[in-house]
Amino acid sequence: MAAPAVAVDNLNPKVLKCEYAVRGEVVMHAQRLQQQLQTQPGSLPFDEILYCNIGNPQSLGQQPITFFREVLALCDHPCLLEREETKSLFSADAISRATNILASIPGRATGAYSHSQGIKGLRDAIAAGITARDGFPANADDIFLTDGASPGVHMMMQLLIRNEKDGIFCPIPQYPLYSASIALHGGALVPYYLDESTGWGLEVSDLKKQLEDARSKGIDVRALVVINPGNPTGQVLAEENQRDIVKFCKNEGLVLLADEVYQENIYVDNKKFNSFKKIARSMGYNEEDLTLVSFQSVSKGYYGECGKRGGYMEITGFSAPVREQIYKVASVNLCSNITGQILASLVMNAPKVGDASYASYKAEKDGILQSLARRAKALEDAFNNLEGITCNKAEGAMYLFPQIRLPRKAIEAAKAAKKAPDAFYALRLLETTGIVVVPGSGFGQVPGTWHIRCTILPQEEKIPAIISHFKAFHESFMAKYRD
Amino acid sequence: MAAPAVAVDNLNPKVLKCEYAVRGEVVMHAQRLQQQLQTQPGSLPFDEILYCNIGNPQSLGQQPITFFREVLALCDHPCLLEREETKSLFSADAISRATNILASIPGRATGAYSHSQGIKGLRDAIAAGITARDGFPANADDIFLTDGASPGVHMMMQLLIRNEKDGIFCPIPQYPLYSASIALHGGALVPYYLDESTGWGLEVSDLKKQLEDARSKGIDVRALVVINPGNPTGQVLAEENQRDIVKFCKNEGLVLLADEVYQENIYVDNKKFNSFKKIARSMGYNEEDLTLVSFQSVSKGYYGECGKRGGYMEITGFSAPVREQIYKVASVNLCSNITGQILASLVMNAPKVGDASYASYKAEKDGILQSLARRAKALEDAFNNLEGITCNKAEGAMYLFPQIRLPRKAIEAAKAAKKAPDAFYALRLLETTGIVVVPGSGFGQVPGTWHIRCTILPQEEKIPAIISHFKAFHESFMAKYRD
């Protein structure tokens, strides 16, 4: 009588449809090779797997910012604040910061569920940080603390997508969290293309065309996702471009979903980060003009605290009844983790001139960001020196997205191996060098073009070897398949 | 031209449908009263709000287990392990445990995203803990670490529910995470009733009847949720009852979703916790016989670390292709928070006889559990001494779910106020005493019966005052509305 309870063909088809290349086929193969290296050392042409597939700085040796970790340790074990030895183990401002944070938590209880939006005192600190960053006021009631940016994105997709006729505008290439989340919630991804030839710029005329096209197919486009600085593309949007986007969303009644998790990662002097809220407010647009969500995360920036799963979304321009629905969905999961909440408040309110930790904090921060800038430039130059590869400037974020003009023979070999050509290239690269990158097809790309996404995160002393291994691989790949 | 981007009437109707009473109307009203107490002290007939609505022990003064917090602090700031002062501030076994945990994390990086299922070394520790608990082997590959139990439940609902014809069996009364998650994923909640007159027992004959009834309506029942110890009902299932449930799920091809988050919370000598996996294995049922998910959380037990958002699900009996889909969905969110992952490994592998912390750990644990048992008994006796109230024994979990036979006049007054009668009662209780409970209608109850859920968590010294305030309120309520 026993029926098979669950099988692939009776699962939710939305789950089957969803894809997530950042941890997809190439990465699973890399994990198998890593096990092989452990069980059979010397059996592969390299000694270690270099994970350039994911923005995970501390997995590649980046050290956490000392001040942040001091505060977290004290909040985890508040008894330390009553002990004399603590003064010699922790910086004075970490002690006072932890004391203040604990005082802002009802009952000093870091082990209690908080308010569903997060601890009010921490949201106050974040709102103050946003206000200082933008020069326009932010409100703690608009902040929802989340376990990283992903749950916030899912929550918005869940709210907006009713059925397959609801569309979400996404850049192509895009970060696959968006395509995965839209697929899981059963909506339609409406693409707009970033223009590689102008440094991954965004043309509002293209947006309009795509919008009309989607509407003519009966798609109700609800929101526009913009990732700035870009992932996987690394560009930093120009202010004028941002104004055009804001105006477009206002005029077309689209929710602007602004992924701003790389706001601290800018590597060029002629660009700076502007939040979309700052842009909108500086245009005189207020709550009634634009519905806007800004996503931030503790996983990125110079801190790179991916494992802590902290982040927030700032929501503005939603009516009170809609906010109640957002609050209700947040409350079904009770709250985000308190360690991540505390860390989100710290990154938005870091040590300042005059604080005991300031000098060491600043040295750590600048050291990381300057090194990332040097690594980005070295990899970018290396890619641009290879046959058939062109790579735009990494102005920000943590990635390069070079285009690889693959020879016809390579494309045929990929076809024979039942792989996308860029996946075929990435798998050969992995098997030859141990370097893990993500094929461009995981992010979307103009049909007929092929890319890889490579993080700039390996430690600086490893970059020369990565470049020489990549170069040797690429040359032999081209020698084998050159038309 | 600007259209309103988003309004309640164009949101996802599944979001609108979802309800979550544990943080619903009564709690929102309590938060308003709490603000009033701050801004206008003395303006209400009580001095503080007593949150008995949610299983959140540390918010009511329960202290964290010292050993667990020592290990977390050391893992957050590993530099401490290199300092001499640390030996006088932390217990020796916390130092060695943190050292071992860090050694099991690639690169000692507590700030890195982990494997999507969680850090392998921590999953090994959890699997060893399950094996020791059950006497049957557990496998680290079956463990998915999660940010509390809720994300695991959502993941399973997402996997199993294709449309409104897919049903999930849930106990009534149930914990509203289940009804909320089923609503959000667009499935059908298929109820089975727990029998209040037999201490919230579960009749398999009733299950069969409900299953046939659902099938006759075209519902494809995919899974059965069982909460043991029970929430909101507090019962601990008898072994024989568990065997019947296992057999029923096997025979009917249902996934058994076992909410076992209260496995450490048992307050009576004649009952003990048995995991459903242990029951199934002891019946000779293996992977091919039963598809089973066990949910565990660091939020409950004697530790009550709700704010850390740690937990896991152990999945067994799923085919490899289905497991790949579960892994894919987990990887879209990258990983659960590492602090919660570490804590989940600690609660499943606590200090043992001979460890430096054992005596103090045991004293803290026993103190909490014994006090909870006394509080449960005191509240249960108090409820049973009131006119029209009957309350089953709290054998486990953190709640009492007394039935209140409301007079006809009270039901009419509720109707006039457009409230469910139990919500009307709970709101009057709140406004009179500051005590926050959840109306039974938020959990489901036999039609025409009315209950409240009240946690046993206020600190022990406050229990006598709570009882006397509750008694005074109830007597005056009954005096006002008695038929």
Automatic annotation (TrEMBL), chains A, B:
Keywords carried by this UniProt record: Aminotransferase, Pyridoxal phosphate, Transferase
Sample GO molecular function, one term: L-alanine:2-oxoglutarate aminotransferase activity
Coiled-coil segments on the chain, per record: none
Top enzyme category: transferase
Transferase in keyword set: yes
Family label: Belongs to the class-I pyridoxal-phosphate-dependent aminotransferase family. Alanine aminotransferase subfamily.
Designated name of the protein: Alanine aminotransferase 2
Organism: Zizania palustris (Northern wild rice)
